[in-house]
Amino acid sequence: MSSSLAVTLLSSFQSSLSVLLTLSYGLVASKLGILSPASATQVARLCIQIFLPALLFTSLGSQVGASDSNLNTLWPLIAWSFAYPMICLAFTYPMVRYLQFPTWTLPAAAFNSATSLPLLLVDALVATGALDSIIGVGPDQQKGHTRLRNYLLINAMISNALTFTLGPHLLKIGHRHIGRRRSKGGIAIVHDRMSSSIQGGFDDSADPLLSESISSNASVPSLAQPFLNRLPEPLRDTLLFLQSLINPPLVAVILAIIVGEIGFLRTAFFEKEGSFFHSWLTKSLENIGSVFSTVQMFVVGCKLYEGISQTHRSQPDSEREAESSDLPRDKSIGVIPLTWLISLRFGIMPIFSTTVVYILLARQQLAQDPLLWFTLIIMATGPPAIRLAALSELSGQGQGAQQAVARLLAIFYAITPLISFPVVAALKVCETFL
Questions:
Q1: What are phi and psi of 219, to 5 degrees?
Q2: What's the pLDDT score for residue 325?
Q3: Which of 36, 73, 255, 413 shows the greatest Cβ crowding within 10 Å of its Cβ?
Q4: pTM across the whole model
């Protein structure tokens, strides 16, 4: 038993180390000037707007409508995807309210890296054989790997949506009011600009305060402009906000569901026999989708170096700092807040998730799907999402707060191998109920 545990822990550690090394290659590339910040931003946008939609369409579409798929079993995954950020906020808000933690600890606690890191980690775990007991071996392994990846992608889509809707408000908790800088429709502009910038990484051209010179309806097609101008302001803001949430990954998910559920389309795209598109169109999409997690993690390394280097070379703009809504506590990390976030992300939430899943399994409340069990345990684990830096910038936080966030992300990604312990715990729980 102890030998088996040690082997599993070693395999998990090796997998997490491979993820960290992939990230470090991007950091080194930025440090050596091989990849400029502008190029890294373009590559990040390429990942989100091309590679991720291709992955979502081919991965989800091949499972939706399959004989062994059952969407009714996904309700625990969807419910937990919404619940665990709220639980993290419930744990952390008293710290911000009464212990004067920095306000950015709220989104740092709620929104973990839900896309490239877990996908790349799972790929590495499959390669080392650590998941053989729950994913299967031989011909069944690829199907299990795809299903596990789909579960993680569903969580990633929900996490991104929550980030766009809740993130800006969390960073303003406790801050003093800074006059109205936005014209009508301004709330929607913030979310629209934040959506594009967060998806693409740090956008150096983005003005975090969104000056009044930007047209309030710049992102709206000109044909719809007269119609929107006649609407009441609250309704117009709502429509603009909803429009800002429409993005290529969401479109890919919708198309995957449509194609997967319609028999002749599913046959044309995803069946090897009698398929017209599978051998060339679907295969080409699979090829570009397969590089998403690796390239995205590489870009995360580039962005981490960019954020760290800015903390060393940039001096705070006194005028901007005076106008910013930063609280003094937001400009430093602090040992206690950092310890809390590390404990929450690598200790408290994994233990909480493991306990909940164990109880549900003991009461036979979950479907007989060990990959679903594994996902439910690990999806609340890991470092804060890299988009926290873009969120901080576009929410109008000053240079001091942005530098603190950059240092926080660097520390968290450096200790990413700690995720190996929750992974081992998740595997052992799954094996217990097999």
A1: -90, 0
A2: 53
A3: 413
A4: 0.82
Q: Is 112 in a helix, a strand, or coil?
A: strand
Tell me the average pLDDT of the chain: 81
b/e string for 214-238 if b means 16 or more Cβ within 10 A? Answer: eebbebbeeeeeeebeeeeeeebbe
Domain ranges of the chain: 2-432
Q: Which residue has the tokens 């109880």?
A: 359
CATH 1.20.1530 fits 2-432, yes or no: yes
Report whether 393 contacts 202 (CB < 8 A): yes
What single letter denotes the amino acid at residue 109? A
d(CA 146, CA 141): 9
Per-position DSSP letters for 206-272, written without gaps between them: --TT--TTS-TTTTS-GGGHHHHHTS-HHHHHHHHHHHHH--HHHHHHHHHHHHHHSHHHHHHHH-S
Q: Which residues pair with 384 in a beta bridge?
A: 112
Cα–Cα distance measured from residue 91 to residue 144, given in angstroms and rounded to the nearest whole number:
34
SS3 label, residue 68 = coil
Read off the pLDDT of residues 68-125 as tens digits, 9 standing for 90 and up: 666 667 889 999 999 999 999 999 999 999 998 999 999 999 999 998 899 999 999 9
- Distance, in Å, from the CA atom of 16 to the CA atom of 424, rounded to the nearest integer, reads 12
Do 233 and 181 form a contact (C-beta atoms < 8 A)?
no
- Rounded CA separation 74/168 (Å): 29
The angle formed by the CA atoms of residues 42, 47 and 50, to the nearest 5 degrees, is: 105
pLDDT at 96: 92
